[in-house]
Amino acid sequence: MLEKIVIVGGGTAGWLTANHLAKSLNLLTQKNRQVILVESPDIPTVGVGEGTVPLMRETLQYFGISETDFLVKCDATFKQSIKFIDWVHNPGTHKNNFYHHLFDYPQLYKFNSLQSWTQGKFEGQLFADIVSSQGYLCENGLAPKAITQPEYQGFAEYAYHLDAGKFSALLADNATHKLGVEHISANVLSAKLSEDGSIDSIILDRDVQLKKNSEATTEISADLFIDCSGFKGILINQLKVDFISYQNTLLVDTALAMQVPYENENEPILSHTLATAKKAGWIWDIGLTTRRGVGHVYSSQHISHDDAEKALREYVGAQADKLDCRQISMKIGHREKFWEKNCVAIGLSQGFVEPLEATGLLAFDATARILAEILPNQSEGINSAAKLFNQRVLYIWQRVIDFIKLHYYLTQRDDSDFWRDNRRLESVPDSLLEKLEIWRYRLPSQHDFFSRYETFNLDN
Predict the structure, then answer these.
(1) 359-374 and 55-63 helices cross at what angle (nearest 10)?
(2) In what order do the strands lie in the sheet with 339-340?
(3) Three-state secondary structure call for residue 156
(4) From 4, 79, 278, 341, the catalytic residue
(5) What is the chain's pLDDT, residue by residue, as a tens digit (460 residues)?
(6) Whole-angstrom Cα distance, residue 80 to residue 401?
(7) First to last CA, the chain
(8) CB atoms < 10 A from the CB of 187, how many?
């Protein structure tokens, strides 16, 4: 039996994985099974992006977490859209140089609005207003639901903005107190490999007492190991799984993050993310209940770190002079394999692209759920499960990269080398170019999105 699973690393990736495994395995009734999460007490949650997509509502409900508790404990707010500002044209050249990527799009094909749009029948009107009422909700500071509606239900589709550190704590509490996951606070020093190259055990920096072991130990063995150790990839690197870089496709490689307090307690909180394009990247702006999370994502090949920080501080305004700015280097790409022998990479150890479209938490959540649902009962089934997992997750990452690149490639901006370089054909995946060639002659069709593993579908 596949009885013992060890997750290395906490944060949102580790605790999302722990909750998914615990729910799928029904740990509270399966006494012979054990999920242990080993979390370093010395590593804070990165929390680069604090936005989610509507899938997170389904996940939280599935975990049995109250939406009210989540909203209160994670300083969470509603997110109905991402508003892209100055992405299409050079700044100042067009009146409405923005567009909404709405979460509610039920009328896209119902009234042939897309066909009519391409024929110029709605000249002067915003596309978002033609296909949905949600753009109106966003621009007028309205919520997607009323306080009288049941949890996880609303008038319009929505997701959340959240505090990543507090979200991890909420997930940890749910996994350990409600779902039966065992939590160990320790640093992982290394892993011991078996003769066949799989992981036999992990070595900790302190003695720990396991619930199903009467003796204290610094070494934990398991049938399956999940690497949620972030960019370090403590376990997956020891198995020598290569990282495939997409730095030549997605050019941004660095982020500057800042926590911005509200200037007064009555300051409005937007129910959508702002993504404002700049000369060498873009700035995110997310409103929580207690503060704003603001950051500049940029290409270090196209702008200096000092100039990137200057652009961020100018965006924030006068109060930025008093605020600290945190620099985060990003590895853009994904692993060649995501499940190697008895080790599965989830989270940043698996892959990462810039936080545009909130793909980070989306990928963590989706791939953790796939793992939980295809997990074999016996260790002899690991190889076949790994093959399936690798195929599905690779497809997810390829489609995510195509969709993110689409934002840059279709722009008409030419005011800097960054935007011109993003439109070079050699920087665009062939899979995206093939679809765009088809769509030159007809509208996108549902048949172009044939897999249930499409991360972004026709409406997106």
Answers:
(1) 50
(2) 182-185, 34-39, 4-8, 224-227, 343-345, 339-340
(3) coil
(4) 79
(5) 899 999 999 999 999 999 999 999 998 888 889 999 999 998 876 555 589 999 999 999 999 999 999 999 999 999 999 999 999 999 999 888 999 999 987 665 556 777 788 888 888 888 888 888 899 999 999 999 999 999 999 999 999 999 999 999 999 999 999 999 999 999 999 999 999 999 999 999 999 988 877 678 899 999 999 999 999 999 999 999 999 999 999 999 999 999 999 988 889 999 999 999 999 999 999 999 999 999 999 999 999 999 999 999 999 999 999 999 999 999 999 999 999 999 999 999 999 999 999 998 999 999 999 999 999 999 899 999 999 999 999 999 999 999 999 999 999 999 999 999 999 999 999 999 999 999 999 988 889 998 989 889 888 9
(6) 22
(7) 42
(8) 15
Please, which residues have CB within 8 angstroms of residue 428's CB and are 6 or more apart in sequence? 249, 405, 409
How much of the chain is helix, strand and coil, in % rounded to 5?
35, 20, 40
One-letter identity of residue 167 = F
Measured between alpha carbons, how far is 73 from 67 in angstroms, rounded to an integer? 10
Q: The tokens of 114 are what?
A: 């897309």
Q: What is the Cα–Cα distance from 92 to 29, expressed in whole angstroms?
A: 62
Contact present, 257 and 323 (Cβ < 8 Å): no
Its pTM stands at 0.95
Residue 310: active-site member: no
